[in-house]
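pinned: reference chain
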Amino acid sequence: MSIPILLVFSLLFVASTASVQDFCVADLSKSDTPSGFPCKDAKKLSVDDFVYSGLGVAGNTTNLIKAAVTPAFTAQFPGVNGLGISMARLDLATGGVIPMHTHPGGSEVLVVIQGTICAGFISSANSVYFKTLYKGDIMVFPQGLLHFQINSGKGPALAFVSFSSPVPGLQITDFALFANDLPTELVVATTFLDAAVVKKLKGVLGGTN
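pinned: its structure tokens
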């Protein structure tokens, strides 16, 4: 028997004897790992581990960006652990905005439920794709790319988003630049903004230096 055939049979044997796991509800009492949380004891599971009701309540939009994101990620919904999916609710008051941000861990699909939302993303080639979305419209935001959502209507807007990861991650560009102790001179040097503007934005967003 040739070596390639032996290799095929070996792989088939490994595949046939490997344990197939239907799910891995996160045990949040243990530490997270690069591959997700350890599994909760299957004997202690119930249907409630696979149901989450947190997206039925509107988020609090009385804040600087007039917006609220209510997540159903692993930390809130342990049942999605290891499944490569999660969801969130997006509430935008009139004039609300989700500033430029990225999700390094997953792609996003948004569906508008109420109101009007202008949304878009910027590709790695700096091409811009944006459109005004209405009830029932869906838009995709590829993993890792800068994107935004703005309430462009005259009333509140509501959308639900899904992700290709149970922990998609989040980095908001404005907060990354102006809501920490990164020295003003470094922000000026890397953004070409005037120092006075940087200091003003730091003041608004809670940054120092």
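why pinned: The chain has a mean pLDDT of 90. The chain is about 20% helix and 25% strand.
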